[in-house]
């Protein structure tokens, strides 16, 4: 529900920490984990290709954590753009003063980015030991140690892609 700018991209844009407005609300992921944003910044975003370009002022939460993307466009900017997305076609269409603008993704780049995110997640994962206590049938307590392994990963390569033709391309 938010637009996110990752700190590595923030630095590459030549922005300074002093440009950030403070924020006290943590950002929660779908797994329940949370991260405290470094702050918030309002930036002008240009979307599209000339002449079909839309410009919107957007508030980004800046977070300092490793990620393979520079930004994540959330519902606020998609709503402001009146964007319609198609995950299947890796495309987003939106209204401009010159007609309908479009941004297209590339299946090879998307797969490469996905593979990099898996490698990053496996690299950052640390094994954890968790103690579970349960009641035994004879009223005695039994402790069981469960070790969570970070060794499991899914490996795919760009050769695994199923190329598709889009609009006769």
UniProtKB/TrEMBL annotation:
<feature type="compositionally biased region" description="Polar residues">
    <location>
        <begin position="142"/>
        <end position="160"/>
    </location>
</feature>
<protein>
    <submittedName>
        <fullName>Uncharacterized protein</fullName>
    </submittedName>
</protein>
<feature type="region of interest" description="Disordered">
    <location>
        <begin position="133"/>
        <end position="169"/>
    </location>
</feature>
